[in-house]
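Hey, why these numbers?
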Amino acid sequence: MKLLYCLKCNDLFSLRPNDWKSCSCGGAGGMYIDDLYAIYNGGVPIGFQNKSFLKALRNQPKEGVGFKFEAFVIPKDCPTMSNGVNSRMVNGYEIKPKADLEGANLQGADLRRANLYRVNLQGANLQGANLQGVDLEDADLQKANLQKANLQGANLEDADLRGANIDGANLRDVNLRGTDF
């Protein structure tokens, strides 16, 4: 099981599948993207060994010292827990701020909550990609294929979408301030 600890407000909370959850101050948040993999921003990921936790639950004493179980801080570089602020590999491309992804084939890619600030995606294929909550501020998306992409809640402030195909894209709650079409 994966938890997230916020260093600002000291909240410790579990992550849910496909439902972004944040701490009370908004300084940390995350979610499971499948049964094993999770993404997060801010905070420190915590894990615990499920077998030892279940054993502790089964052996809860009536009083005195509780039954111990194994918990640990998840490393910064963990293949099953990705910090959206840092880079990650998707379809052989490094996804990070200011990346040059001109012409990249990211069709159907899961890029939820990725930081793509000032990224070059000219002519990229993002058809059907999940870009929910992605930061694409000041990104170059000229002639990109965004057909049926999920951009719900994405930040496209000052992005360049001239010549981009956005047919059927989900643009609900997208920040389009200063965006060029």
